[in-house]
Amino acid sequence: MPDEYIRLLSGFSACDVADGLQNVYGLSDGGYFPNLSERSCKNGKSVVGRAYTVLFAPASDPRPAVNYIDAIPEGSVVTLAYTPELQTTMAPYTYVNNAIFGGLMAGRAQFQGASGTVVFGRVRDVDEFESLHYPVYSYGLGATASKGVVKPVAVGVPLDIVTCAAVPQEPAAGEGAGSCHQRRRTTMRIESGDYIVCDAHGMVRIPTANVDMEKLISYIKSSIEADQLVARDIARGEPAEASKKRYRSALSK
């Protein structure tokens, strides 16, 4: 059965969804996962689907490798990530230089009806992604396959993505106000089945278990309408802040 929420979310940008998650559910990160780059796109449209999660671990991991590529559910976003010890908060955000997704896998995923792929690591065969018109997002690019280095060990499991934030700290003696920052290591989780929305801005995840989809989508629609009215006022030369207050104050949360 077609997923109606996928159809509705396809009309929104990643920014629209992030605004909704921030304003309705108080998520300061808006569900946005940083540092991903668009390697191929879907004609400028948003890529939307349910997360089909795949966990990669070192080749030495005692768990056997799993075949994830031949069981992709239709309408899913294939989401690949490493175990935390293979992740880093600094670019290139993983210690693995090998690619874990390429052209052949993209072709197979597309045949099964996947909406796209997100890789918290490296990919290769970008020209094949483009020729297939298959959307792919990743941290980086690689040229070497993953054989003997890492392997997929689990499907449909939570993925913990290591990232960081620059957190303002109280300045030390002799430092100017606001000059002291500390990088804080944080972890963001993607659950199997979460809704994923990607576009040129990157990826936003909707934590499905904690979100009323009807409420979120209704807010996003109202927010877009309000922004259109603000944009109209700005084009007429009216003050932006007054216009935002006029239209955004009416949004229901």
Describe this structure in words.
The strands form two sheets. Strands 1, 2, 3, 4, 5, 6, 7, 10 and 11 form a nine-stranded mixed β-sheet that branches. This protein has a two-stranded antiparallel ribbon with strand order 8-9. The chain has six helices and eleven strands. The protein starts with a helix and ends in a 5-residue tail after the last helix. The chain folds into two domains: 4-210, Glucose Oxidase, domain 1; 212-253. 26% of the residues lie in helices and 30% in strands. It has 253 residues and is of the alpha/beta class.
Number of helices: 6
What oligomeric state do the depicted chains represent? single chain
Q: What's the Cα radius of gyration?
A: 20 Å
CATH architecture of the largest domain: 3-Layer(bba) Sandwich
CATH topology of the largest domain: Glucose Oxidase, domain 1
Helix content: 25-40%
Unreliable stretches (pLDDT < 50, length at least 5) are: none
How much strand? 25-35%
Count structural domains.
2
CATH class membership of the largest domain: Alpha Beta
* H/E element order: HHEEEEHEHEEEEEEHH
Overall 3D form: globular
Instruction: Report on the biggest sheet.
Output: 9 strands, mixed
What integer is the average pLDDT? 91
The tally of beta strands, per DSSP, is 11
